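## Example pair
The file below holds two records. Each record gives the amino-acid sequence first, followed by its structure token line.
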Amino acid sequence: MCASRRLLACASVSLAAMCLGVPVCAQEVAEYRLKAALLYNFALFVEWPPEDGGNTLNLCIQGTDPFGKEIDALQGKPVGGRSIAVLRRLATEPVKGCQIVFIAPSAIGALPRVLEGVAGRPVLTVADTPGAARQGVVLNMTVSENKVAFEANQLAARSAGLKLSSKLLRLASEVIQ
């Protein structure tokens, strides 16, 4: 088995374990540690268009960072031939130079502006606010019965020129076509 297939197999197992039964601790830190890991796995299971090259995959947190140091563990982690750079942005800042945008709960009021700012560009939008996937966010993390799950908006992904892996879609609690 080649190295990339082995990495994909390991990532698949990790993602499945995270989505299908890892309880969220009462502490918010543990919840956001799990959500940070889930963000990394999302990046592994999304295909960006070939013209969206470069060596860095910018993960921008729009609004007040709920992850704290947990998200910093992703700094420099490999995704395909790229490495992740974590950037923090104010809710009012324009979304530029990001391949992944996490819309923090504090910035959800700016969601229409954020989505308009990335429209037609290959940007994976992620949130953890009820109803965000139905509003146009590609992936929305939810907590139900003390487990982290996620919803996938295929229409939003296609509009952004992104391809979500079938393995990722199978794990989604809901897929919006």
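Second record, same layout:
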Amino acid sequence: MAGSQKDKEPVNIVAQQAILVETILKEERYQKLFTNYSINPFKKMHTLTGKPNSFHDTAEGEEDSNFRSVIARANEVPTKKYLTPQTESQEYGWMTQPLIEFDRHDDRLHRPTRHCEITKYMDVVWALERSKTAN
């Protein structure tokens, strides 16, 4: 026990204070003061009617066009809001338009299912098996 107390170094208050000052300076350098407050457009909200005897609540034309545009933009699908996907998950299904036009008469791209006598027979057999297991 006596050896473990000798191994401990005394706390260096000056070094701890220097670390604290450096941390605060870094925080202040990257900190932004946010003063533009508005309602979160992604949160569902309930509109309340105004008070019946209040002139401010019954005045006509007090709708905020900027707020309306923010809400409309928040309700759009991501492909209309952004030019490119914002996350890795959005990359799947981002481009929904086909790359080439689909032509059913072109045998290179369209291979319809062809039935011969054996495949028609097996379709009937499997349909009978499914109907037996369903009952």
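Notes on the second record: The mean pLDDT is 82. Residues 104 and 112 are 9 Å apart (CA to CA).
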